[in-house]
Amino acid sequence: MVIGNGLVAHGFEMYQNNDQVVVFASGVSNSNNTDRAAFDRETDLLNDTLSGLQTQLVIYISTCSIYDPSMQASLYVHHKLAMEKLVADKADNYYIFRVPNLAGHTSNPHTTLNFLFNHIVQGIPFHIWKNASRNIIDIEDAVRICNHFISSDKNTGRIINIANQFNYPVVEIVEKIERATGRKGIYTVIDKGNTPVIDITEISPVINKLGINFAGNYLDNIIQKYLVPHDL
Q1: Which of 110, 125, 207, 217 is deepest in the core (most CB within 10 A)?
Q2: What's the 3-state SS for 132-151?
Q3: Distance between first and last Cα of the chain
Q4: Which ranges of the sequence are coiled-coil (predicted)?
C-alpha cells in the first residue's frame, strides 16, 4: 500500500498492491511551509494509518533537512522528527528513510531544481546563498536503495539516510542549469548558507552493489533527464 500521490508516492508505486508493506509518502512537501494545519493533517493521517496496522512493514519517508543547520529550528524539521517518533512508538516493524532533495518528474515548484529552473527560464529574480550546498539524488536511485533494505534486510526498526555522497554548491547548480538551458538567471549572491553533513556509511555498500555512480556528470544527467525536456 502506498499513501500519497506526489513524487515519492509515484516512486514507490510498485508497493501499491502489496498488503505487507505500507509506504507513507503523504505529507508536507514544502520545507518552508509554516501552515500548522498542513502539518496537523499529516499527523492525523499517520496516526490513522498506524492505528490500522497488523503485521505490515511501515516505510516512513522523512528528511535529511534535519542535518541542515539553517533548517534545524524550522517547523518542518520539528514536525518530521515528531513523525519519526510516532512511527517508532507505534509500529513494531518499520524503516524510516531520511531523503535529501529528490529529483524527478514533478510539478512541485518548491523542489530545489524546479525552483531554480523556473526562476532562470522565466527570468524571475532570486537570491543565491553563496555558501549553501544541497544534496540531490534521483528519485529512481533513492527508491532502488530503499528497496534493497525493504526486500533484503530484515534488521528493521532503523533510521537510514538515503542520500548522494556529494553535496552541490547552489552556485554550481545554477550554473549547470544555465548551461543546459542556454538561459542566464537574474540573481543576487548573498554571503550566507551552509552545507548539510549527511552520514551515508550504512548505504555505501548498497550503492556499490547497485552500481550507482554519484561522481562525474551525475547532476548534469539529472538536469538533462528531468528539466531540459520541459518547454522553455
Answers
A1: 207
A2: CEECEEEHHHHHHHHHHHHH
A3: 37
A4: none
- Among the listed ranges 73-77, 92-96, 119-123, 227-231, which one has the minimum average pLDDT value? 227-231
- Return the pLDDT at 36: 85
Q: Is the alpha carbon torsion for 123, 126, 131, 136 positive or negative?
A: negative
For residue 228, the surrounding DSSP H or E stretch is none
CATH number for 71: 3.40.50.720
Helix axes 112-122, 218-226, angle to 10 degrees: 70
Residue numbers of the domain that contains 159? 2-226
Residue for grid cell 515548484? 109
The three cell numbers locating residue 31: 520545507
pTM value?
Answer: 0.94
Is 232 a member of any domain? Answer: no
Cell of 3: 499513501
